[in-house]
Amino acid sequence: MKTENQKAWLFVLPVLLLVAFNALIPIMTVVNYSVQETFGDNLFFWEGLGWFEQILRSDRFHSALGRQFLFTFLILIIEVPLGIIIALSMPKKGIWVPVCLVTMALPMLIPWNVVGAMWNIFTLPDIGLLGYFINNTLGIEYNMTRSPIAAWITIVTMDVWHWTSLVVLLSYAGLVSIPDAYYQAAKIDGASPWKVFRYIQLPKMKTVLTIAILLRFMDSFNIYTEPFVLTGGGPGNSTTLLSIDLVKIALGQFDLGPAAAMSLIYFAITLLVSWLFYTLMTKDDAK
Amino acid sequence: MLSWMAWTWPTGLFFIGLFTAMALITVIEIKKPGTSERKGALGLTTTRGDRLFLSLLGSAYIFLAWLGLIGEPLWWPLAISLAWGVFCFWKV
After folding, report:
1. How many domains does chain A have?
2. Nearest residue of chain B to residue A51 (CA atoms)
3. Per the domain annotation, does A41 fall within a domain?
C-alpha cells in the first residue's frame, strides 16, 4: 500500500485564502444584495425574491441572454475548427516552429481594453485602415457604429483574432505529443488523412480541446471589456451582451439588488453549461 | 466590520446550510473513505461531492424556473428540490 501524506494541503492554503477574499466573500455579498434594496449609505431594505422574479420575467434580460448565447455560439463554432485547422497546418519541427508559436501567441499578450481600442480605430469608416478600405476601395457600406450587423461582424472578428490562438496553441500541444509510431501504423494501414485525423489526432487532442472549449466558453460568455470599448453595447442595444447589461444596471442605474439577482442567474447558467461541457467531454474517460 | 456585506438572516442561514452540507460530506468521507464512486441512473460516474453539487445546482434551477414561470409562494419547488436531492443521492 502506498503511503499518503496530507502535507500538500498546507501548500494549497494560501490559494484558498486568496480565493476566499477575491471570490467567496464578494459572491456572498452579492447573494446578500440580491434579496435587498439599497439607496446608498449602506442602508439595506429586505426585498425577498422579488428581484429574481423581475429579472427572470424581463424582456431586457431575455434579449441580452439571447445575444450572449448567439455570441458564444458563433465564437465556439468559428474558433474551435479554425484553431484545429491552423494547428494541423503548423510545422512540427524546424526553424519555423518558434516563429509560428510566437506569432500565434502575440494577440493573446495584448490587454483586452487595448484590443477593443485597436479594433475601434482599425474599423472606423473615415480614418480606420480596414474601415476605409472596405468603404472606399471595395465600395461596401460598412459602419459598425451605425449598423448592428456590421457591429456584430466586428466584435466576432475581433474575438476570433484575439482568442483563436488559444485553441491553436492547446491543439498544437496535443498534436506534438502524438508519437510517430501512430502515424507510421496509419501509413502502413493506408489510412486516409481524414481517418488519421478522426482516429489518431482528434482522440489525442481531446483533453486539451476540452480545456480549450471550456476556457473559450467561459471567456466568451463572460466577455465585457472588448465589446464595451469597441461598440459600448451599440448601436442601440444590438451588442449589449449580458455583462455589459449587468454593469449598466449595477453601476449605471445603481440598482444593486436587481444586478445582484441577475449576476446570480448569470452565474448559475455559466456553472451549468461548464458542467455539461466538462461531463459530456470526459464521460468516455470514466472507468 | 461585516456591515458592508449587508448580511440578512435568510442569506446567513442559506450559507450556514451550504457550509454544513460541505462539512458533512467531508466528515462522511473521513469516516468512509473512497468517495463512494458509482455509475448512476444518468449514466454518469459520480462521487458523493458530485451528487451534492448536482442536487444544489438542480435545486437552484427548480427555484429559478418556478419563480420565473409561476412565482411565489415557493413550497412546491421546495418539495420538488428535496425530492431531486433525495433522487441525486439515491440513484445518480
Report:
1. 1
2. B67
3. no
